[in-house]
């Protein structure tokens, strides 16, 4: 089946620094990818839709200047958490769609800001 | 607006017994429904989906789900639970217009030996 690879799986950074998370579709092209955030024992919250070659679409309440999304190619989307703070600590998951129904998820990135 | 509800935070079953994880949905238009499983600190793994066709959908690892239009439900089932089935299960609906997924709150399944 299709594979979506997310890197890194775990990262610890200092408060005030920026962290980049990569999401790659390994065996298919994805014009659209999605970024989710998951708090402990909670569901996934959609943060933004990453569109190849154009600006990302952010969900209401998500700061676009804080969570920078770049979708430079058909197989790669990146999420950069800028000036990270402890409250940004969370589990971030990306997904890529193949065709109109299939969605494949990355393995997630555990971000801890200290 | 599309949404799904998972009324149970946790389901406990004994190994070998049948299991059911409940999901109800609310959609405008055709429902595209999915079940995913998540193990600790991992992404989501696809189990099964309903797009059209037979109401009983069979998926990975022996799981199945029944689409019930009159009750707007899409419950996940397995005839005989395994300890290794213990995980977090999410029901989801896909928005047909924007290709977004909306997830339920998740149900933690505990299968005890």
Give a verbal description of the structure.
The complex is a heterodimer of chains A (114) and B (113). With 114 residues, chain A is an all-beta fold. Chain A has no helices and eleven strands. Chain A is globular, with a radius of gyration of 13 Å. Chain B is mainly beta and 113 residues long. Helix content of chain B is 0%, strand content 51%. Chain B has no helices and twelve strands. In chain B, strands 2, 5, 6, 10, 11 and 12 form a six-stranded mixed β-sheet that branches. In chain B, a hairpin with a 5-residue loop joins strand 7 and strand 8. The mean pLDDT of chain B is 92. Chains A and B meet through strand 5, strand 9 and strand 10 of A and strand 6 and strand 11 of B.
Spatial shape of chain B: globular
Which oligomeric form is depicted?
A: heterodimer
Helix content of chain B: under 10%
Give the overall shape of chain A, derived from the CA principal axes. globular
Topology of this protein?
The complex is a heterodimer of chains A (114) and B (113).
Chain A: E1 4-7, E2 10-13, E3 19-25, E4 32-38, E5 44-51, E6 57-58, E7 67-73, E8 76-81, E9 90-98, E10 102-105, E11 109-113
Parallel strand pairs in A: 2-11
Antiparallel strand pairs in A: 1-3, 3-8, 4-5, 4-9, 5-6, 7-8, 9-10, 9-11
Chain B: E1 3-5, E2 10-14, E3 19-21, E4 24-26, E5 33-38, E6 44-50, E7 56-58, E8 64-68, E9 73-78, E10 87-94, E11 101-103, E12 107-112
Parallel strand pairs in B: 2-12
Antiparallel strand pairs in B: 1-4, 3-9, 5-6, 5-10, 7-8, 8-9, 10-11, 10-12
Question: Which labels suit this protein?
Answer:
heterodimer; A: 114 residues; mainly beta; seven-stranded mixed sheet; four-stranded antiparallel sheet; 0% helix; globular; B: 113 residues
